């Protein structure tokens, strides 16, 4: 198991990844339920989605399972937020 | 310069960090101007803020300048969003 160690630094990284990945779920749920997107920024979700796409590619190239897992979930969350903003934004 | 190389994979990571860090700025600006926080999720910004705090500590312990830089900016953005949500949320 040389070179593969989960020390306390890696545990902090894993907690960080779980928190930032999970954080978008209540926003997706709230927007899906209320269909209210008035105070959401379209540029934010557009730039964020493209940024997460780059993080996902980076994680794949770096062969980091935790980065690929976290960013695979976040790319779905950010795509949904972008879709909601464009879809429901037209009505407001 | 052995062990310190910026290859194309690192460039993808740097682009990813710039995009996700920059993405929150239009949201902070929009919320600051409009004071409208109705469609923002409080749990999202609370969990996200704590998550970024963990990423910042992780970056410091890993001695990653790009992680420390990106997360120092994002912790300010997410703190402002949390502050706006709590402050302006009371009025609505």
Describe it for me?
Chains A, B: Keywords: Membrane, Transmembrane, Transmembrane helix. Chains A, B: It is a multi-pass membrane protein. Chains A, B: The chain crosses the membrane at residues 6-25, 37-58, 64-84. The structure is a homodimer of 92-residue chains. By secondary structure, the first copy, chain A, is mainly alpha-helical. Chain A has a single domain (8-89), classed as Up-down Bundle (Monooxygenase). Helices cover 78% and strands 0% of the residues of chain A. Chain A is built from three helices and no strands. The first copy, chain A, has helices spanning 8-34, 42-61, 65-89. The longest helix of chain A is centred in the first third of the chain and has 27 residues, at 8-34. Chains A and B meet through helix 1 and helix 2 of A and helix 1 and helix 2 of B.
Task: Walk me through the topology.
Two copies of one chain form a homodimer.
Chain A: H1 8-34, H2 42-61, H3 65-89
Helix pairs in contact in A: 1-3, 2-3
Main traits of this protein?
mainly alpha; homodimer; Monooxygenase; 3 helices; 92 residues
**Most extensive chain contact?**
A-B, 39 and 39 residues
Coarse structural class of chain A:
mainly alpha
Mean pLDDT of chain A: 92
Per CATH, which architecture of chain A? Up-down Bundle
Broad shape of chain A: elongated
The fraction of residues assigned to DSSP E strands of chain A is under 5%
Question: Using only CA atoms, what is the Rg of chain A?
Answer: 16 Å
CATH-assigned fold name of chain A: Monooxygenase
- The termini of chain A sit apart by 56 Å
CATH class of chain A: Mainly Alpha
Largest sheet of chain A: none
Count of distinct strands of chain A: 0
- Outline the low-pLDDT stretches of chain A: none
Compute the number of helices of chain A. 3
Give the assembly state of these chains: homodimer
Instruction: Output the helix-strand order of chain A.
Output: HHH
| Overall tally of structural domains of chain A | 1
Give the % helix of chain A: over 70%
């Amino acid at each position: 198991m040389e070179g593969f160690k989960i020390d306390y630094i890696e545990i902090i990284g894993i907690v960080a990844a779980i928190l930032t990945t999970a954080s978008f779920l209540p926003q997706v749920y709230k927007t899906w339920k209320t269909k209210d997107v008035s105070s959401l920024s379209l540029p934010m979700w557009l730039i964020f989605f493209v940024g997460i796409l780059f993080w996902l590619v980076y994680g794949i190239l770096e062969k980091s399972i935790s980065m690929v897992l976290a960013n695979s979930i976040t790319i779905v969350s950010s795509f949904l937020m972008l879709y909601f903003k464009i879809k429901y934004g037209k009505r407001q």
